[in-house]
What we know:
The protein has 177 residues and is an alpha+beta fold. 33% of the residues lie in helices and 27% in strands. It has 4 helices and 7 strands.
Amino acid sequence: MAHCRFVVLAFKSVRQYYAPVAHVLRLLDVFRRMVNNSIRVGLLNDVSSLRRLSLHSYNQLVQYDSPSCYRLCAISRAAGILAARKKSIPRGFAARTPYSFRQQLVSCYGFKIENGGLRIPVSRGKRFSISLTKRVLEVIPQPGVEVRSFTLTRKTEPLHRPRHSPITGQLHGRRGP
């Protein structure tokens, strides 16, 4: 009997609320429009794989005023939406035209955690820093935790910030070697 060794990686997500800023709100909307544009290109060319969708839509996303790292993530998100649609059609589910309606920003490229803040690119050569809470700063430096990506979303429920619509941010990490 052969012995197999494998590593199990655990993913952890940390969430915090913060006040919206104009740069981030603009990026949330631009990212949503880039995802929808990539979905449209994928439907027109009958493409749902990440590689082929990248080849067809990356050059069209240059028109958006956004750092290139967000273009790649928008294409990845669109490929996931198109792949899910492709799987649901043979199962007999009614397939309407897919689109992304939620304002969000997802990226695994170009961000840094420095001086107690999450620094994200907002335009060429410019970064914006979001202060991280004490709880988030306690989770990040744990041994074996590596922050891999972040997600910023806009919530419409003004529960935590009565003057502003709260925006949640998530840092996704990986635990293991």
